Amino acid sequence: MQGSISRRSVIAAAFTAGAAPALADDTFPSRPVRLVVGFPPGGPTDMIGRIIANALSREFDAPFVVENLGGAGGTIGAANVARSPADGHTLLVAVEASQTRAQALYPSARYDQVQGFTYIRNLATQRNLLVVNPALPIRSVAEMIAYARARPGEVAYGGTVGATSDIGGTIFAKQNRLDLTFVSYPGGNQPVTDLMTGTLQAGFFTESTIAPLVRGGQLRALAITALARSPTFPEFPTVEEAGGGRLDILPWFGLAGPASLLSAVTLRVAKAADRITRSDAFRAQIETIGASPIRDSSPEAFRAQVEREIPFWIAWAEEHRAQLR
């Protein structure tokens, strides 16, 4: 009798184990999904998060609710997701700041950027512009380089340490052998204001932040800090086209979950995100914030991208002694 019961138990256990992924796949989501954004409301990451949350809500006919947990370059929100149950009901709007630069810039971030997460899909990239104060006699990248070389240390640009406003300037200066001065800000739009008033002379800012100022003449755009021109400003060349060297500074936004997320849930969310990013509606929505959809991505490709980028940012932080706490 004991042997018979044991065999039935083994068979039942095997069936249950084999059926678990399918069951999770069929029932997900069983309650509202938290979509954590590691930045305050109103910024680009929050905007992308709300667009994707609404789209996922339609795909799954269930609520995906944005929760803003801002601070420390997105690492507070990322750490929260890394500690959450791996059942798919807590996901992260993953950005390069928290997923590839945390180890380099935020030693207090207590999570593994690769092993601490399940990478689902990359969604979009956002464009940056190289801009100057319009009172300066600079109308091209070549003139910017000549102006800065003639005035070592006098041309200042500003932003947040470790953000693309900082990184773009350090790479541009190194490639063109320039002595530029970086002015650090805690965040917000003060660097843009200071550029307009002349406190700063140049900036590397997201297109969505400064597009109205460029159109209104308060700032002068010289080039796109990417490998392709912007559909919003096709008249501006890339930095490389303009002779300033290869500069590919594109903040990205993706979806991730805690480590060991059920593969069935990962694939369902990835397939839904794939349909969303290929839709005209998504492309039109994110174009309003100077972003473009990533048409081809997968869990494997997204994780590999994160792994490739981490060493670059560690080396960058060491070279520029950029470390935050």
From TrEMBL:
CDD domains: PBP2_Bug_TTT. SUPFAM superfamilies: Periplasmic binding protein-like II. Residues 1-24 form the signal peptide. Keywords: Signal. Pfam families: TctC. It comes from the Bacteria. Belongs to the UPF0065 (bug) family. PANTHER family: BLR1237 PROTEIN, TRICARBOXYLATE-BINDING PROTEIN. This is Tripartite tricarboxylate transporter substrate binding protein.
